[in-house]
Fold each of these.
Amino acid sequence: VVAEYKRVYPKGALAPQLLGFVGTDNKGLAGIEYQYEDVLSGTPGTMEVVSDLSGNRLATVSVEEAVPGESITLTIDEDIQFETEKILTGVVEEFEAKRACAVVLEPATGEILAMANTPVFDANDFSSVEEPDRRNMVVNDQYEPGSTFKMVVTAAALEEGLVTPETTFTLGRDIQVYDRVVHESHAESVPETRELTVIQILAQSSNVGAVQLGLEVGKTRLVEMIRRFGFTEKLGIDFPGEADGQMLAAEKWSGTTIANVPIGQGIVASPLQLLAAYAAVANDGQLVQPHLVRDLNRPWKRQVVSPLVAAELRDMLTVTVEDGTGKQAQVRGYEVAGKTGTAQKVKEGGGYAEDRYVASFVGMVPADAPRLVILVMVDEPANQHLGAYVAAPAFAKIADFS
């Protein structure tokens, strides 16, 4: 009888895409197991043995003791992780979605309390799961953010002093920029002309208003704000395979790019990058590097917008939940600030699919002094595609429990 070592995951189907797994040699192959292989594995020992011809040990000449690996402590809260996975699984079943992800983060520390993906599977039986289902879409995948990105162009306009939250614009049902015409998402229900404040543009998720703000800000200042929020770089989270954002280089922008980017088209980002941008708003304008392991990390920090602008954005995003598109994200006993997103997916060969969407909601709670920032993203829901109805209620359930 020969003893062998085997990696066992006592919680089974809890956070499998996050934890990852090891191979037959007990070396990490994915997830945290791979990221921290050097810390966890230690150094094997060695010994020289003198034997006779029959294999009997006569003497041990030298021994080098093994050095055990170190333990690491995740920032993950087990209860919040479990509940988040349960809620996500219900959303995917209800809306017949392809998959979904959610993250719960403390904006002041950058600690991630939950990072959930569907489908959930038993980490002890990872070999029976297809590779796409093992992916951590929060960190490894990219999407066009859609309307959740309107916060960024609003932040740029406020930071540059071009507008205040009460600045009013006269807007039509559409806006033309060179040969590109951008329509409101439900143009038939919108008056031919209307007066909207910057608060209302964000709360009602006006496409025309967001493009107007983009024209006010201009390419140079908008690109700079996008970079400051971290959309064009890796955030350096302690997880393998992090995707960096992608945006057309500033010198390659056409005249109509300024009509795409403010409404979250023509730019791709990971769910983690979108979460981090809202976390900066929650944390008085300071972005703290997200991370998954305590003690081994010294997260960097940087100021993205001023504390005043961050406070104005929180107030505006609170109106979005109270009176705008995010009403389904309300949590009893708390003020919530956040934004819905509904993004059409890009087709192969260019253009947008008419029947494939990514529905999302990202928000913070309590709105006046946020303790948590939570993102929910649902990929290709079938029987309803609006973030307001698919993702926002899931946010509310996760926030209420957390």
Amino acid sequence: MSAEREGWGRRPRYDLVIMDAPATGHGLAFLKVPLVASEAVPVGPIGANARRILALLRDTERTALVLVAIPEEMAVVEAAEFHRLAKEDIGIEARAIVLNACHERRFDSAQEAEVLRLIAEGAGGRLPGGVPLSGALEAARRHLRRAKLARFYRNWLRKRLPLPMVTLPYL
């Protein structure tokens, strides 16, 4: 007998399986397949297997739906919509959300103000290594904006989704 699972009643080979589903619209359609199949085929092996899969997806002891989004408007709005539709249409409750690629705050308030002041004054010159100061300031300004957006969308999600949240840094 092989180490792989051979039917519903045997112990699975793996303790944990992580599936990266498609984006919101396709991911929801993917999760609806067992529901639709179980309704379309009320008897026989196809309907029975669809009902087993649906029961597995709804079993909070064995399955956890974790939403993943990046800190951008479309992604967080879709995550909130996916959360609602998975619960209402399929009966699957999300257990957590991951906010991926978050720019972390690298400057304190005084440093942020200094970057913005230098940009407003049109500061010029070169940094060691010949890097133009204007380019470095522009990169710092973009970073400030991305870090601010990450904080904004983290707070937006926390207000709308009553889920534990993990934030991962932008690498």
Amino acid sequence: MRICYIAHSSAHFAQPYIDWFAAHGHDVHLISFSHQLAPHATNHHPVAQDFQPDMARAHYVRAIPKIRRLLRRLAPDLVHAHYATSNGLVGACSGRRPLIVSARGTDVIRSVQSTLGRALLRFVFGRADLVNPVSQELATHLAGLGVRDDRVLTLSQGIECERFQGRSNTRKPGPTRIICTRKLQNP
């Protein structure tokens, strides 16, 4: 199967998908707006240089014709776009199906706060064959946007907390320590 991801290669969540499908013999392609190379995928970069998604949203829109041509040439069996309001928009405008759009968090949480943001999400999710919120909280937001339950698959990358229920807490006294895998920056 030929799978094409539309995701930033620098995003921590892209590589596990690529690795898994490549390890299972699939032909994996990545269309990325960051130029970091993703191992185990054929990398495609539709813009000349990296950019911060929050600072240069017009790059996504300007790249749509180029990405449409690239996807026509690649003819993937499946397109999976991560982050609804950027790569998801590109995927929705690509005309390729089937299309999966993963909602990762702030793409939905911030966008549902404005009329334009909600319209953008409805447009993107309306063109997706499957929407993958990575938490139940995001799935609730999707329901509020009118995304049908039969098109939603809530699937998280992470730890199954139930596996650790009932274990005793042997934490030593002292300051609380937190491990965070996210960038610590103001929105």
